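Weekly modeling sync, notes
Attendees: S.R. (lead), two postdocs, one rotation student

Agenda item 3: backlog of single-chain predictions. S.R. asked that every request posted to the team notebook include the full sequence so nobody has to chase files. The rotation student volunteered to paste the first one in as an example of the format we agreed on. Action items at the bottom.

Example entry:
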Amino acid sequence: MRYDFVPPPKRQPLVWPNGKRLAVQVTLNLEYWDMLKDTDSPYYAGGPAVIPDPIAGRILDVP
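Predicted structure, as returned to the notebook:
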C-alpha cells in the first residue's frame, strides 16, 4: 500500500476503532548469538572481533 505524504500539521486526527483512546502493541524481540566463532574477523565492519561475555558475579554491581 502506498499513501500520499501529508505534513504533520495538516494530518487528520488519528481515530481508533470504537472511539478507544489507547492502543497497545506487544512486541517480542528474539536474538541469537553464536557461542563460538570460527574466525577472528569482526562481527560487523569496524566492530570488535570478539563480543565480551560478562558472567554474573564478575561485574561489580553498585548503584
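Discussion: group reviewed the output briefly. The CA atoms of residues 3 and 17 lie 20 Å apart.
Action items: rotation student to repeat for the remaining queue; S.R. to check formatting next week.
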